[in-house]
Every structure is written in C-alpha cells, then in structure tokens.
User: What shape does this take?
Amino acid sequence: MVKSNTNITVKNYKKTGIIAAIVLVVAALGIWAVASWNHEVSVNDAIAEVSTDAASGADMRIAVIRMDTVQADAAALKDLRAQKENYEKKLRDELTKEQKALEKEKTEIEKSQGVLSQEALQHRVVDYQTRVAKLQRSLTERAQSIEESYQKALNELQTKHLDPVIEGIIAKKNLSLVIDGRFARTGANVGNLDITDEVVKALNKKVSSSKMTTPKGF
Assistant: This one.
C-alpha cells in the first residue's frame, strides 16, 4: 500500500513572496485535482471493461485435496509435529520442576514470618516475586520461540516440497481447479475427484523428514 504524504515541506527560497505564493497555489491545485477525480462510480461503470468470458463446466477438470489429511498423514509433517511436541514437553517438565521449587520456597517464606525481621522477610518476598516473574517471562518467550521455529519449518516444507508436488500433479492431470476439501461438499459418485492420497504419497516420496531450527532457550 502506498502511503500519501500530506505534510508539505516549504523550502527557504532566496526570492520570497510571489514564489512562495506560487508554490502554495500549485500545491492547492494539485490537491484539488486529485480530489476532483476521487468520485464514486456505479457498479456497472466499474465493471464496464470486464469481459463476459468464463470457464465452461464441460471444459473444466476439477480435483479436491483434503489438506487436513495431508497435514495428518504426510511423514515430514508428522516429523515436524513430533519435534514441536518434544520441545513443548521439555518446557512443561521444566515448568513442573520450577513450580515445585517455588512452592517449596513459598512455604519456607510463610514459616519464617515469625523468625525473620520485617526487612529481611520483605527482601525474601521480593526475591521470590522476581523469580516468579522471570520464570513466566522465560517460559512465554521460549513457547513463542517453539511456535516460530515450527511455523518457519512448516512454511519451508510447503514452499520447497508440498507446493511443487501439488503443482506437478495439477500439470500432470491437466487440472483447471483444485479445491481444499475441507470447504467442499461432493457427491459419492464422482470418480477421480479426490487426489489427497496421491498428494500424500508423492510428498512422502519427495521428502520423509524435516528439521526445525532449535528454538531459543533449548
């Protein structure tokens, strides 16, 4: 999107007065000219140059791909999910460990209320709260890093492998249109419409695994 800059910078001219006036008048005329062209037209006028040509049903070759099935069954995508789940498990295990340590420290602080001075107790509480905040921040950042690494690997897999496979199948079958099966409703008597299994088999043949970049903090 191109952003218009409505701030006009006026330079210091050696000759002032008339020149400055001309600059302002020209700028005003320019703004008026743009505004004068910014008028609304009817729908018929807007589509006047649109042709009446359209694809004929008899000439079209259509197929459906169930992308949810591709994501669930393709070996490389399974591999990526397993890696992501492994990192998430490590994070959950660490969270459980840190929670137990913090709960123990909290209990010790509560027990020390009648022993420590008010200043010492306050200092210990502040340290505890700082640890909790630091843990929350660290876990959040690392969880985000896992998701970012996973999405990056997913996008690379799609760009380098899945998209070329689908495009190759489209070319080989001379297809006119491919629809995501998650949003399509089809009859049971349509042969050769669903190419999901062919996509999965071809993708598995092209690539069987994929590697996530190690997330930050692991």
User: Anything to note?
Assistant: The longest strand covers residues 62-65.
